[in-house]
Write a structure and sequence with these properties.
Number of strands of chain B: 12
Structural class of chain B: mainly beta
Number of helices of chain B: 0
Oligomer: heterodimer
Radius of gyration of chain B: 14 Å
Distance between the termini of chain B: 41 Å
Shape of chain B: globular
Order of helices and strands of chain A: EEEEEEEEEEE
Largest sheet of chain B: 6 strands, mixed
Radius of gyration of chain A: 13 Å
Strand content of chain B: over 45%
Structural class of chain A: mainly beta
Strand content of chain A: over 45%
Largest sheet of chain A: 7 strands, mixed
Helix content of chain A: under 10%
Chain lengths: 114, 114
């Protein structure tokens, strides 16, 4: 059991469309990070949310946006999809109170853009 | 900028062979270091981590890693691998003062033949 749940597990979209991915953190965690993992690559940091605010952002365009809700769950939105956005999108949660706590990952959402 | 380099992209071993996966990072400050494993079809799981103290850290499933600060390395080792160790292994580093953005290596695919 990952503890972190993501939905949907798979998604197929067309270029130019918009997509929303969802994440529920592990119980007791208040911080959510999103990563993009292209095939054969390591995860790339997209952004992190804490207290409903984006705290840090990786090198991703503004087409990638997010949101965190009062219950700590989070959404990742991608607008104007490109073929290159096809990847596994990972959500990870952690706890600020635990200091440098390691991330707990969900199973990811596999996005295919055609 | 921080970066992580994993030396071996694909490793094939026979059961009972010893394993060492190389990981070097580039960062001038204090870091926290991690090894994650991704078994086929499963989510990323933490194998072990180094924050401070004894540079030889032991993780789950008989894995260990040694932090050598002078070499900026955090190599993963296991004395005797099993078929069930077949997985993708990722080294990751984060600024110890800014536990927000994990930087990942490209990963090493390990195949253990029975």
């Amino acid at each position: 059991d990952a503890g972190v749940t993501q939905s949907p597990t798979h998604l197929i979209k067309t270029r130019g469309q918009q997509v929303t991915l969802r994440c529920s953190p592990k119980s007791g965690h208040d911080t959510v990070s999103w990563y993009q993992q292209a095939l054969g690559q390591g995860p790339q940091f997209i952004f992190q949310y804490y207290e409903e605010e984006e705290r840090q952002r990786g090198n991703f365009p503004d087409r990638f946006s997010g949101h965190q809700f009062p219950n700590y769950s989070s959404e990742l939105n991608v607008n104007a999809l490109l073929l290159g956005d096809s990847a596994l999108y990972l959500c990870a949660s952690s706890s600020q109170d635990s200091g440098n706590s390691p991330l707990h990952f969900g199973n990811g959402t596999r996005l295919t853009v055609t | 900028a921080q970066s992580v380099s994993q030396h071996n992209h694909h490793v094939i071993l026979s059961e009972a062979a010893s394993l060492e996966l190389g990981c070097n990072y580039s960062y001038g400050g204090t870091v926290n270091l991690f090894w994650y494993v991704q078994y086929p079809g499963q989510h990323l799981q933490l194998l072990l981590k180094y924050f401070s103290g004894d540079p030889l850290v032991k993780g789950i499933k008989g894995f260990e890693a040694e932090f050598i600060k002078s070499k900026f390395s955090f190599n993963l080792r296991k004395p005797s691998v099993q078929w069930s160790d077949t997985a993708e292994y990722f080294c990751a580093v984060v600024d110890a003062g800014n536990n927000r953005k994990l930087i990942w290596g490209l990963g090493t695919s390990l195949a253990v033949n029975p």
